[in-house]
Design goal:
Layout: H1 4-22, E1 24-33, H2 45-53, E2 58-62, E3 67-70, E4 83-91, E5 96-104
Parallel strand pairs: 3-5
Antiparallel strand pairs: 1-2, 1-4, 2-3, 4-5
Amino acid sequence: MKFVLPLAMAAFALTAVGAQAASATKTSGWISDSMCGAKHMGSGAACVKKCIQNGMKPVFVDANKQVWTIDNPDAVKSFYGDHVKVKATENASAKSMHIDSITAAK
């Protein structure tokens, strides 16, 4: 009986963390490449496209210049170098995201 309350509290804490991690967030930023990262925020679309053609991975750069890897890179292939709005599920510990939807930012 002494273990029931701590076990229940641990289960609740893990459920809350899991629910938070699974929710999608909306944010805006830039699609860049894994070599240049935040260097091309707002410029350098040609460089981003060339770097990706040469084997670099597309990444998402947020407004704080944090670089996030993209779990599903095909979702952004029409937006290399662009300022975009995304709805994505983030994995903060891995600095990665799964893009659910993407549109050009105005």
